Amino acid sequence: MQYLTAGAIAPDFTLVDQHNNQVQLSTLLQKNRVLVYFYPKAMTPGCTVQACGLRDSMAQLAAKGVSVLGISIDAPARLAKFAQRDQLNFTLLSDEDHKVADAFGVWGEKKFMGKVYDGLHRISFLIAQDGKVEKVFDQFKTKDHHAVVLDYLA
Question: How far apart are CA 100 and CA 25, in angstroms?
């Protein structure tokens, strides 16, 4: 698995959000930088902690001109439940066929409890308004993800 690095052009994409609306990366980049964060599965403990940290940091991220997109392979209905349950205040996108994850290089082999399988890796990309990857966040704990991003933006 080889994911995008800083300086690479982020692939433009259009995915369906938790409200069944289409969201396009290039449209969002006209207004702000975008934090695209990939997470394995909605409503699991680690993904919930990560999402809630971002939720609680949205005012600070917005003040730095950053919008947030969370991407998983969950269906839009599951994303809607996740957003409602945890009062998430940012967009969740459904990449059920993992084409966007493939394009960013975050879909690949994983190991859990001795089992090897293909899945989504927990990696985030800060995309600058020119469409280039400004920063890759690949070393963090789920509870600290938001703080790592905010520290970079400071």
Answer: 11
C-alpha angle 145-15-44 in degrees, rounded to nearest 5: 40
pLDDT tens-digit readout, 104-113 = 999 999 888 8
- The Cα 61–Cα 82 span in angstroms is 21
Q: Do the bridges between strand 66-72 and strand 91-94 make them parallel or antiparallel, or are there none, so unpaired?
A: parallel
20-39 pLDDT, tens digit each: 999 999 999 999 999 999 99
**42, 47, 83, 133: which is the annotated catalytic residue?**
47
Six token digits for residue 42: 């909605």
Dihedral over alpha carbons 11, 24, 28, 68 (to 10 degrees): -80
Prediction pTM value: 0.94
* Domain 14-153 homologous superfamily, CATH: Glutaredoxin (3.40.30.10)
Burial category of 7 from C-beta neighbours within 10 Å (exposed 0-12, middle 13-18, buried 19 and up): exposed
pLDDT of residue 25: 98
Is residue 47 among the annotated active site residues?
A: yes
